[in-house]
User: Fold these one by one.
Assistant:
Number 1:
Amino acid sequence: MSLFSAQKSPEVLIESWSPVCDIQAFAEESQSCVYFYLWINPGKENPQVRGCWVCNTRPAPEALDKAAMDRGEAPMMPAGQCRHDLGGIRLRREELSIVWLEEGDAAALLEGDRILALIPGWAGQGGCHGYARYAAGTGSLAWELAQAEAALAPRVARSRAYWERMAGEYWPELQEKGLGAMEAFFGPHEKYYAIDGGQFPAKALVTGRRAGRRYAFTLGVSALCQPAVEQFWQDEASQHRRIELGFAAGEDLPEEAWMGMLNWLSAQSGLPWRYLSWLGHGHTIPCNRLPGFEAVLFVDPRELAGVEGPELPPVMGEPVSLLWAVPLTLEEYYFARTAESSTALLSRCRGRAEELPVFTGEGKFLLG
């Protein structure tokens, strides 16, 4: 597969697929240089390609060859932005490897233990397409790795260890502790549904009853780290990137509606990795599984005093956010999305905060 047409067909040196996202990573050598790519949603209607220069294999030009780019050729890094021998270098193919970062939407290309290039989850923003060991400054093909390596190298090492753990026996401990927290909340569980379809990672949906109410929680979603969280929370990303989803209703909710919400909750458990996004407190997404309701608002008990929920244990040393799915009427959804905000909507909650997550068939907010 070639992203650029050149006189010599580009050669793929190494490739890898994300463990959790529909992304292919590969390093490709053309007749003049090597690039590292992330191909998002390959073969789909909305594919994206993120590319980062790695090195030149021929003498560096004095300026960026825009004519070559117009011909669809992978451009070489100009001499003034190149930190390796200006005559070009060759990579040791047998020493190349690809490490996916913990979120699964970003990856690093390594030669031995050294990072050659890294494409972060936010690549393409602010003019940065990735970091490269042999890049100098903040050019249009890659930014220099030197200034960022002190932060990125430990992250790559941590990511390698994370995926090794995920390939091992992480599930029994997470399952036992998560289920224990749920049963401490509602007593012995009623139903346990596997919702992973036999695919990695393991996930389940657990239901139970307490005081005339029915509860459902996902189990296992928190093993994964949500993409894009660091773009909002920066240094606090580790406090918000692991989640489980929950839904509660009175026992009078018809079984068809209850099962509809369980199926919907199951489907949303993979949303962050499917759309390279994240879910958190105050977020809204469409949901039409309940008559008269058009969306849900996610509410985190850690962020709203009085809201109850299972005390979910940390996963791999990081806290887990329980996100209650609170159904919204069309008017409430419009208010949260356009007229005001989720914060303003939450300030108009009718009744006690502890009743907010429990669906009763009526809207939860006073908008008049």
Number 2:
Amino acid sequence: MLLKRKIYDRLLDWKQKSNGSTAILIDGARRVGKSYLCELFASREYRSHITVDFGNAPREILDLILNESYNLDLFFAKLSVFYSVPLYRRESVIVFDEVQQCPRARQLIKYLVADGRYDYMETGSLIRLKKNVKDIVIPSEEEHIELFPLDFEEFLWALGDEVTAPLIKDCFHTRKPLGQALHRKIMNDFRQYILVGGMPQAVLEYLKTRDFEAVDRVKRRILNLYRDDVSKFAEGYEDKVFAVFDGIPGQLSKKEKKYKLSSIAPKARFRSYEGSFIWLNEAMIVNTCFNATDPNVGLALSADHATQKCYMADTGLLITQAFLDRPYMENELYRAILFDKLDINEGMILENVVAQMLRRNGHKLYFYSRSDPQNRENHMEIDFLITEAKKVCPIEVKSGNYKSHASLDKFRAKFSSKLGNSYILYTKDLMMKDGIVHLPVYMAMYL
């Protein structure tokens, strides 16, 4: 079964507008669907294509890349013969898959694009790690796009539903509630999305079996693959990366979700673990959220990188990771989410899926935290901050039965001149109240 992805249209746009003047690099976590997407696009949109998989490239091809690229006529002739694929001027594409494993191939893009005969696509994971760009010049002829797990709209498409998302979008823009019956149906689909997540293999398994235990096995394999990558590519500090990664569910299950290194070791210091957070973020396994200490001067300008929250890039993987040391049948999150009893770690799950949707929309993630032991009235915690039309928009993630929003009220009073809309994301239908836009959590995909 084919999974429809939004990024396909961006690739079409690149092909048409670039017309061979740039290559396209698709960056994303492992198992997020990069290779599959490139293969589908190349086979549909070109007369012929060659895929060089550097995860398993034969010695002859590596030797060709490393030693014989000075003569492009001979280079293309040998490539065509080796793969038994004819190449047609301006009608063929060459795909460099897992290009981070052959930095020389990535550097070669500059000369291949200048030659102009064919189009070029690259895929990479861990692409931004220093060791994967060491001693090469990153080609300026390379356009870079990120591929994330399926979002909720893509998940609905996979379920065969292409009508619900446009209706949700219309209600979001017109600020109209959907009505209880429709909202309940969408929340039911959204709960399935939370449990399955957006990793293509997990979604395909769910479509095939409708069996959450089978899906959980797929997600465990992906998490084990990530752990293998840490062992291979975080040499020298892999133990610290493992410690941070394994601690994510425990940190997110606390009321204050800031990552406290003291939970790893009593005397742990951020400077010793900073590289571990960076590694996980650059591998696109996590979504890092920084404390913007002074939203008056801009979110990035006031970001405190030592105070951060660390969300899993895919909420389905978080649910499996939280009970990784126990069998599927003991994972109470599946029951709690399916039967709408999500008081167990509710904040952890809902905040993580909101972080995932905001990141998918291109937002860098920030929150606001202020602690004043002398005066409790000055204490504030805002889950997320985004900007809309140069205005700061605070976002609070709440359960459906929340009673108050004291931090949001204090934040709105303190930064009133800088604020745009204030949002509460929760499990009920859309509502306007107290000057705050209350949105069902699935509408985060349109923020």
Number 3:
Amino acid sequence: MKGIRKVTDGIYWIGGSDRRLERFENIFPIPEGVSYNSYFIDDEKTAVFDTADISVADQYLENLGEALSGKKLDYLVVLHMEPDHCSQIANVAALFPEVTVVGSKQTFTFMEQFFPEAAGFKRLEVKEGDTLSTGKHTFKFVAAPMVHWPEVLFAYDEASKALLSADAFGTFGALDGGLFADEYDFEKDFLPSARRYYANIVGKYGVQVQAVLKKAAGLDIGMILPLHGPVWRKDLAWFLDKYNKWSTYEFESDDAIVVYGSLYGHTASAAEAVAASLRSKSGGNVRVYDVSGTDVSYLIGEVWRCRKIVLICPTYNNGIYTPMENFLSDMAALGVQNRVFALGQNGTWAPVTVKLMTDKLSQLKNVTILEETLTIKSALHASDENALNIFADAIVKA
């Protein structure tokens, strides 16, 4: 059955949602599912902007056929060559052999790596500033390198003021019947997923995102059409502000998160005590996470949200507790900046994790590592209460 939604005059969504996929890029858990967005232009000449993932191929090709209703397809525009958006390029080209495939020079390089038959496609190579007219709609191309692949283009439609933004401004989450962000309580239903999507997939490329945001500021944008998640037609400034914060590594909240590792529960008890003390002293919101039981992508999303990060774990094999070390490595890989870290450790005979975590965190830019730390020996006792209060006071005052 067809699944087409009108975006605006002459532009239609013809994508699909996948609720079966367990991990995006086979890394990030997506219990909320994910959408794959493709956009059809019904004009004097027809065009499709990006295809979809193989998991929704049948629905996608059915939607495309319904949208065309017997007309020929003139253009297939490829803004992003990642497989979750390009998997159907060869199928579309086979169904419509006269189609002209449009993309950047690097797009075609990647395309032939995925699809050797692409060497024989009719093609139109475009770069920043070039335009493509379908009649009433004229699309101006904007280069968006490393947001988050090097070949990425945006396309701005002068007629509808719609920005087709590739993977930028996307989010995890299947579309539950609604296409537009304002059809949902976005802050409740999508914002944590959007933040986690950005932080884990695009977070490393803040400088490049800032460059694209500056370009976008010069356009009169009325809609944003991403390749994942809902379309924005209202309150664009609110979401753009989120992207500006995320891409400059600003925190959204002065809240603290407490992330702990614990073998037998003793360090967990200490972490809960720290969280309770922080909440009591600050009156603010505190979230507690078990580093062993929480996928690191959720922790990274919380790092992008919060200013204060409290890390408490035992010494393990004379090193950092392994899941905590993995979390630290992810923060380093994604270029975390502008955060305050407070460190605690547990060790029955030789606690060294505060020093080791300090060494790793010191490699991050513009971070503060509090001098006040917490050390417990095997388990937290009443005799540790004063040290715990001093530790919590330092975090609150930071």
